[in-house]
Please model this.
Amino acid sequence: MKLELRGITKRFGDFTANDSIDLLIEPGAVHALLGENGAGKSTLMNVLFGLYDPDGGEILIDDKPVDFNGPGDAMAAGIAMVHQHFMLVHPFTVAENVMLGHEQINGPFRLLNIDAAREKVREISARFGFNIDPDAVIEDLPVGAQQRVEIIKALSQRAEVLILDEPTAVLTPQETDELLEIVRQLRDSGTAVVLITHKLREVKAIADTITVIRRGKVVGTAEPTASQEELASLMVGRAVIMKVDKRPATPADVMLTVEGLTVVDDRGIKHLDDVSFEVRAGEILAIAGVQGNGQTELTEALLGATKPAAGKATLDGKKITGLSISEVLESGLGFVPEDRTEDGLISTFTIYNNLILDVYDKAPYSKAGALKPAAIQENAQRAVEQFDIRTPSASMTAGSLSGGNQQKVVLARELSRPLKLLIASNPTRGLDVGSIEFVHKRIIQERDAGAAVLIVSAELDEVVALADRIAVMYHGQIVGIVPPDTNRDTLGLMMAGAHKMEDAA
Amino acid sequence: MSEAPAPGIAAEPQPPVAGERPPARSVMRQITESSALLIALAIIASLILSGVLILIADPEFRAALPYFFSRPGDTFAAIGDALGSAYSAIWQGAVYNGGASTFAQKIAPFMQTLTAATPLIFAGLGIGIGFRAGLFNIGAQGQILMGATLGAMVGFMWHLPFPLHLIVAVVGCALGGAIWGFIPGILKAKTGAHEVIVTIMLNYVALNLVSYLLTLEAFQRPGSDNPQSPVMDSTAMYPKLFGDQYALNLSFVLALVAAVFAWWLMERSTLGFQFRAVGANPAAARTAGMRVSRVTILVMVVAGAMSGLAASAQVLGTQPSLTVGIAGSIGFDAITVALLGMSRPFGIVLAAILFGGLKAAGPTLQVNAGLPIDIVLVIQSLIVLFIAAPPLIRFLFRLPAPRVVKEVAA
Model:
């Protein structure tokens, strides 16, 4: 099946998200759709799926125009999508999820034919070597396996075009390799695969055709042989330095000491198990690991948002576990939360109010319980300039900003006071290449100014780029602390829980 | 869905993320954060729809309708008469009575409107502050009852000289309401009990507590078998603003001061900054070091105190005796007032005056237009209904739909 998008245009008000985009997707090929966040990739896919009505252009299948009114139509036509956030029912089994929406019914009592679904799962599983038990419950499966269930779901509907939206965002390096292998098999069996991503490494590894989208337009196509730098500059529209520019660290005194930190939740599950490490002033310790291995709990315990069951943390000699969040912040912690829209910003608040969210009660922003609007505005002007926050006005709401500019607001706020320790979780998640460069630069500046920096990131590239030392977390424990030039495969194995390699450290 | 819009461009609608339900608060957001346009249209729509109901209730219109096609003039005359008398009765009863002989009498309806608006302003401010802090306080009714109880006790049990007695009684009212707001506040903060359930239940507790108190000898009016307390000392009463010709008293001025205070609190104080932050995004407020549970308690105390002041307008103003009916329906009307006023002090004052006007117009409607007084309730209810259903208003007035993406079902 040949799928063609011709001149697709989609506008939101004055904003053109897709500007006459042409795309040709052919069977037995992997087509990478490369673009920064906000370039219009998701909009295009939503148009393809009938979620948006395009303002112009048409969709053709085997040269015949089609009109989709919703995902159902697209799926019936043989197009399936694996979303970045999986669409699975967690308490259901694999087989139940696979048949969801296409249930077969048997006999006079109209019973569900779960066996047919099981058989289908086994068959597809065997064909691609997935090793998925049809009776496993989704919530018990690791993320990589859940993704395979999504793929099985798509294939069980005889999808001829499979769209993968940022499929590797949640995977370990090893799982990523496995996924790429699956994609190859799918391609070889004649499926057309569309890979939406901003990760150049994967594109180069697997794509047959690369279409680069920037600001809603196709800015070019590239061969997989193009260098990462070439692809990146095509994507961003200017030359990009792929490597973070930083001098060797000059670690000074120990700033943060974590000893035996253990966090147990209400249900008695241990999320953090006897974690100990040190971060010195002037160095960046990056925590690598697949999401959900205790990183969130670690940062929250250090912030004072959760009370540890055991262990303690001291900042510059002062015990911070047991203090309230505001006391910890006052002790010199800058905190860039993992989820900026949920924890870092109030999207309905103006930018200038977001910039004082944790210092609103300090001079000069308030006096005797009354806010000082002039000082607040002035601060915003300064921050917008220094951090290059792209907005018509600081009176706009934070929700109106792009992800990169939102993150700049958070950084501007947290870096505006003297810090002893900066904790940043996934500081560049969802940001475009330009913003990533900026954020990395500011983090390194903070290190060079003498702060201890703790970075938590699920992106191995980021960990390697920023870290002076890398701590790998798995199942709530630190598997090992290694130098930043450690081999990727070694890191990947550690992230998957292999025992720490003493000789690597 | 990792796409973020380009810099400086309004956020493009994002498809909902898989596995996440829309936040429970979004329904409340919808009704508490409607636009001024929507609210104005809701008022207009409800007046039009009540007009239809007035017509259906009008005997002349019903008599003329069957021969509409032979003599349409009769029907239109009946429509004109019925609506004309209804709307002019509202105008005469609430704003300006042109038929009266002196100017003072002509503006008496408006003075009555302001008097009726006073407790609604207070209670509406309290509820509005709660809305903005993310709390749905349904308990204004109970808070008014407890405020009235404490204020009344000061008013008739203690005997103090004039300004002092009034001040102490007003403080008593505020304290009574604040206590009744504190209870759901601390329950929510410490145990997570939902404030809607707790405040509704506390309304019943307050009502029954007042009726019990009124059976006690200490609360009995001498020489009366009715459940009503002795009359307040005159030293505890709000002085009338323009002498005895109008019921309007100092509490109205105090209500305006309270509105200015509420504005300052929410827009200019660090405490209000916390209230708003917790209301808009408790997770981010917490991460920024704010104590969400403390804010919850404080908001409920402030809201309760405001309701208590509403009680003072009653018990130290227009109805100087504690009865089970002292709160009327103020605690519930105030919720509508806060919604109409978009939880902003200025809007609440306007909305309270609108509702005060409808209340003041009730008797005139009955006498002049021969309409049941319930029509006022119908108008009020329709306003709420229209505000709660923005798509309905958009459909009626052909407004463009907001940019919402269809649910992703892939």
